Amino acid sequence: MAPRVLSPVVAGLPGCAERTIIRCLHGPQPEHRARRLTACVLRRAGASCDVSDAETAVNELVTNARQHAPGPYELRIYIAPAGVKVAVMDSGGDHIALTRRLAQAATTDAFDGESGRGLQIVTGLFPGSWGAEAVASCTGLSPAKQVWISVPRRPSPPPSRPAIPSGLRRPCEDSP
Fold first, then answer.
1. Percent of the chain beyond pLDDT 70?
2. What stretch of H or E contains 109?
3. Is the dihedral of CA 67, 69, 71, 75 positive or negative?
4. What is the pTM of this model?
5. Which residues neighbour 56 within 8 Å (Cβ) at sequence distance 6 or greater?
């Protein structure tokens, strides 16, 4: 049975993504490029988290993808009114096993050596705001998976009414 491919909906956040950014992660220093783009987007989107925490998590996600799954690799950033979902996609089809490993990383300190430490960092920095899901790459390759974190946005202030110069104001009919 083929894995179900999910649409780019920001998990845990209502509504679909209003904007999606996808960048291929190839060449030298993809972790650095992913951190830089993530930080820039989160700052502009008004993220309500410490952007350096998101940079650390994205670095771990890119490193894990490159060490444990076949390419191609993509950084996907879904921007929605309530939050931003930052995901790293690879051509591994093991999203269910990885979801279990993420859950284990969130609830235990027992990992063998260095294996699993990156997942512990991700789940520790973003408790309850992470996951893995089946997707297709932008070139249509399947199976593929993406591992993600979700970052809430600060509520935008209500639009303010522009000030009307006093010479253009109509006097109230009740005023003396």
1. 74
2. none
3. negative
4. 0.77
5. 121, 125
Domain boundaries, the chain: 19-155
- Bond from prior residue into 143 cis (ω within 30 degrees of 0): yes
Q: What's the N-to-C CA distance of the chain in angstroms?
A: 79
CB–CB of 42/53 below 8 Å? no
Under the phi-then-psi rule, with left for phi > 0, alpha for psi from -120 to 50, and beta for the rest, what region is 155?
A: beta
**Both structure tokens of 71:** 């390419």
Sort strands 130-135 and 144-152 into parallel, antiparallel or unpaired: antiparallel
State which H helix or E strand residue 7 sits in. none
For the chain, the residue count is: 176
CATH class (in words) of the domain with range 19-155: alpha beta
CB-based contacts of 44, cutoff 8 Å, min separation 6: none
